[in-house]
Design brief:
Number of strands: 36
Number of helices: 2
Structural class: mainly beta
Radius of gyration: 26 Å
Oligomer: single chain
Distance between the termini: 26 Å
Shape: globular
């Protein structure tokens, strides 16, 4: 449905087509192994340990100035049935016990446990016979289900190695997908295992120029002064970055290495590239993880990735809207962005080949005088999946404000998102390679029109986070298997009914 300003919420004469019948899939763990061909699968909804395959689409996109477009795709919702095993009663005619008191796992109790001849849940197990004594492979009592399970998020003693995290939905040990699941180091999301946590593999950095040569980096009291002070001999290293008054400089990741830069303590640390000639962070045939870090200013780009992998969680890019620096410049690179804010960069994201995944993120106010590309620039067969994101207020660059495309066939799917841009917000060269699903788009006449729509759709922003009002974005998104289960602030997204399009669900 298209809504036209002046004919309030009335149907307009054209429709931005979105005839996808796709089971869209976002693989947050990107667990394809090095050397495999990674792309985006929208044909099925496999589990997160399935390698993504090529995204295909034949949907074309057109736009008319001053209109709002809401895209939906019908789907049949299958009902899930839950089976519960009832404890069978084997009482004797004389009123004997339900089960064998000497066998806590008596089959007569089904999913329950035998205690003193009665079938009970795990919360009723006696202290001398806890879950660990009943089943060594299910040593934790889950109060919610009243069953002994392999783990819970609060008790994951069995979870280690390649499965260090506990899935709260299944109570099974699984590969990690968030750095918080590896509190002593960081999560190597590609492999699903935690980074090494030996002292020499976890170092501290705090921007400074005082007594730098004497610092070992092995504790926060002796933090390295610069990112470049971190030894590069280890194949994997976690850098705990501490907020400070001095910039810690940039970093180039050596080939074949894996580095995680994560926030240490409560204050968000900043990597400032204003005085760095070249990219602030460089990834080449290696991989870099960022978590809860602010990237600010740059001369060329804040992140440059070539034939590597780059992951960002809870990260804030901020430019000055003066120079043309890119937020991300990627070539044949896999880029995965979660719960990010990318704002006021001279140019947004350029992707030549490779794959891009974005979820629960804000891409705002890109574009500076003299910039050569808009918020997104896809080239040479690039593939992207953007879900539950808010893309708005990006400036007109070379006639396009939001999505530009060049080169070989690219495949870009935007779903469950809110997009507001000045006409044209989609480059005609994107053609059938760019499709929208369960999203709301408004192509504005000018920046004043953009501002008016933003006021109608959202509450006043707080630190570049736009929370939706009831109205145009409501009930436009539809969760599917593989979509994020939480929004920008880690609030649950309903999985059984339509939700709000965009990065943030309402308060």
């Amino acid at each position: 449905m298209i809504l036209r300003r002046g004919a309030r919420w009335a149907a307009a004469p054209w429709v931005m087509a979105a005839s996808l019948a796709l089971g869209c899939f976002y693989n947050p763990t990107l667990q394809d192994k090095p050397g495999s061909t990674s792309a985006i699968d929208t044909t099925d909804a496999p589990s997160s340990d399935t390698e993504p395959s090529a995204l295909t689409s034949s949907t074309t996109t057109s736009a008319t100035t001053g209109t709002t477009t809401s895209t939906t795709t019908s789907s049949s919702a299958g009902s899930e049935s839950e089976s519960a095993t009832e404890a069978s009663s084997s009482s004797s005619s004389a009123g004997g016990p339900e089960c064998d008191p000497n066998n806590p796992k008596d089959l007569a109790c089904g999913d329950l446990y035998c205690v003193a001849g009665q079938c009970v849940g795990c919360t009723s197990l006696p202290a001398e016979t806890p879950c660990a004594a009943v089943d060594a492979l299910a040593p934790v009592c889950d109060a919610a289900s009243d069953k002994c399970v392999e783990c819970t998020p609060d008790d994951a003693q069995l979870c280690s190695g390649d499965t260090p995290a506990c899935d709260p939905l299944t109570n099974k040990c699984v590969p990690c997908t968030e750095h918080a699941q590896c509190p002593d180091s960081a999560c190597d999301i590609l492999e699903g295992a935690c980074f090494p946590d030996e002292p020499e593999a976890v170092v501290y950095v705090q921007g400074s120029n005082v007594d730098c040569q004497a610092k070992t980096g092995l504790s926060e009291d002796s933090a390295f002064c610069k990112l470049t002070d971190v030894p590069s001999e280890l194949p994997k290293v976690t850098i705990r970055l501490i907020s400070g008054t001095q910039a810690p400089g940039g970093l180039s990741i050596d080939e074949g290495k894996a580095v995680a830069i994560v926030k240490h303590k409560s204050l968000t640390p900043e990597i400032n590239g204003a005085n760095i000639i070249g990219p602030t962070l460089t990834v080449s045939n290696s991989r870099l993880y960022l978590s809860s870090v602010k990237l600010r200013f740059a001369s060329i780009s804040l992140v440059k990735c070539t034939a590597g992998r780059f992951y960002a969680h809870d990260t804030f890019w901020e430019g000055n809207n003066i120079n043309n620096a890119l937020a991300i410049d990627a070539s044949s690179c896999d880029v995965s962005i979660h719960r990010a804010r990318i704002a006021r960069c001279g140019a947004g994201l350029k992707l030549s080949g490779g794959n891009l995944w974005i979820e629960n993120s804000f891409i705002l106010d890109s574009g500076a005088q003299g910039a050569q590309q808009p918020a997104f620039h896809f080239l040479n067969g690039a593939k992207a999946l953007i879900t539950y994101s808010t893309i708005a207020r990006n400036r007109l660059i070379n006639g396009v404000s939001t999505f530009a495309c060049n080169g070989d066939m690219h495949e870009v799917l935007v779903r469950n998102s809110a997009v507001v841009g000045v006409a044209e917000f989609v480059d005609s060269e994107c053609g059938q390679g760019l499709t929208f699903q369960h999203s709301v788009m408004y192509e504005a006449v000018d920046e004043d029109d953009v501002n008016n729509v933003m006021t109608e759709w959202f509450n006043a922003p707080v630190e570049d986070v736009y929370t939706p009002k009831n109205g145009p974005l409501e009930d436009k998104a539809m969760w599917e298997e593989g979509d994020p289960r939480f929004d920008f602030f880690m609030q649950p997204i309903a999985t059984d009914k339509p939700t709000f399009a965009g990065a943030r669900q309402p308060l």
